[in-house]
Design goal:
alpha+beta; Penicillin V Acylase, Chain A; seven-stranded antiparallel beta sheet; six-stranded antiparallel beta sheet; 5 helices; 13 strands; 34% strand
């Protein structure tokens, strides 16, 4: 996952709304979102190389998503897949804070990451570079491949998009406006680009909210909305190299806690 914009306790009817893009090399095999037959409580896409996922939910109303921390000097392929942490939390009964407290001492086993975990009652963030567990405050936030709410142009634009939707009176539960937010292909002036060590040409490629490209880009967009009663909507749209939607998976369910 490379961009997650979310509203936590910022809407009277929907305590958690998430709009996210998964950016990945296109040759890394993945299955679209589905209820996993071997772990039937989990709804998520699946990384077919390592077996984990980048974002998922459960029938119990649990939510988890992960992003990599962008650092080209740290690419140790011998370390375990970060997507396994998402699966582990979704299968766990621990609170987000308790799960992260147990995870934190061994976080350096993995390449650097940011983890966002919720159980309907609390939402926590943990960045392995910071090493601190944060109870996410109510409001609109966004997370890319750095720290939570790091003011990269794509982060601030995604946050503003969600804030505008909520301020504009979004009420009907329709997911399309949030897909519009994460479909923005606007580029960024060179002077506003972050310097993450990948070089100016690749920074330009990575700067938009929706990344287009033949080898690397946004593979799918996902919007999740939980309402006050625990009813959930989950929709994933697969993206082609030009950003066009090539497939849609839509699910609704009521969480059982």
């Amino acid at each position: 996952m490379c961009l997650i914009a979310f509203a936590w306790k910022a809407h009277a009817e929907f305590p958690l709304i998430v709009a996210a893009n998964r950016d990945e090399w296109r040759d890394r095999a993945a299955a679209p979102a589905h209820w996993w037959p071997d772990r039937q409580a989990i709804l998520a896409g699946r990384d077919l190389k390592a077996g984990g996922t980048w974002l998922g939910v459960t029938r119990a109303g649990r939510f988890a998503a992960i992003t990599n921390f962008r650092d080209p000097t740290e690419r140790d392929s011998s370390k375990p897949s970060r997507g396994a942490m998402v699966v582990d939390f979704l299968e766990s009964a621990a609170s987000p804070r308790d799960f992260l407290a147990a995870l934190a001492p061994g976080a350096q086993r993995y390449n650097a990451f940011n983890l966002l975990l919720g159980d309907g009652r609390s939402l926590c963030y943990f960045g392995s570079r910071e090493g601190e567990i944060l109870d996410v405050p109510p409001g609109v936030h966004a997370l890319s491949n750095h720290l939570l709410d790091e003011p990269w142009p794509k982060v601030t634009r995604a946050k503003a998009g969600v804030e505008d939707l909520l301020a504009g009176g979004w009420r009907d539960g329709g997911l399309q406006p949030f897909f519009d937010v994460v479909s923005d292909t606007t580029g960024v002036a060179d002077e506003a680009l972050p310097d993450t060590g990948v070089g100016i040409e690749f920074e330009r490629v990575l700067a938009p909210i929706l990344i287009r490209g033949e080898r690397y880009g946004t593979r799918c967009s996902t919007v999740v909305a939980f309402d006050q009663s625990g009813h959930a909507q989950f929709e994933e749209r697969t993206r082609g190299p030009d950003g066009a939607v090539t497939g849609t998976e839509h699910f609704t369910f009521s969480s059982v806690r």
